[in-house]
Design a protein that fits this description.
The chain is an all-alpha fold. The protein has three helices and no strands. The radius of gyration is 17 Å and the shape is elongated.
């Protein structure tokens, strides 16, 4: 692995870590809003019980996907 590949991999892993922290933040916000409006996350997501809780769930999902993609790209960088 070249220095460039190693740096790219390390950068992607750092991005994944950052995205995980953001995902955790939005997950906590989702649970906070869930406790305020009551009901399950499924009810909030599909019936719009709370716009804020739904928005937080969407943010959480985006950061989770970002972390997964960054980890996948880092693995590809290391393997090939």
């Amino acid at each position: 692995m070249t220095d460039y590949q190693r740096g790219r991999r390390d950068g992607l892993l750092a991005l994944a870590e950052w995205a995980e922290v953001r995902r955790e933040h939005w997950q906590n916000e989702t649970y906070r809003h869930q406790s305020l409006v009551g009901g399950s996350l499924n009810r909030i997501k599909h019936r719009g019980a709370s716009r804020m809780a739904s928005w937080c769930m969407n943010k959480m999902s985006i950061y989770q996907e970002m972390a997964e993609e960054a980890r996948r790209m880092a693995e590809e960088e290391q393997n090939g």
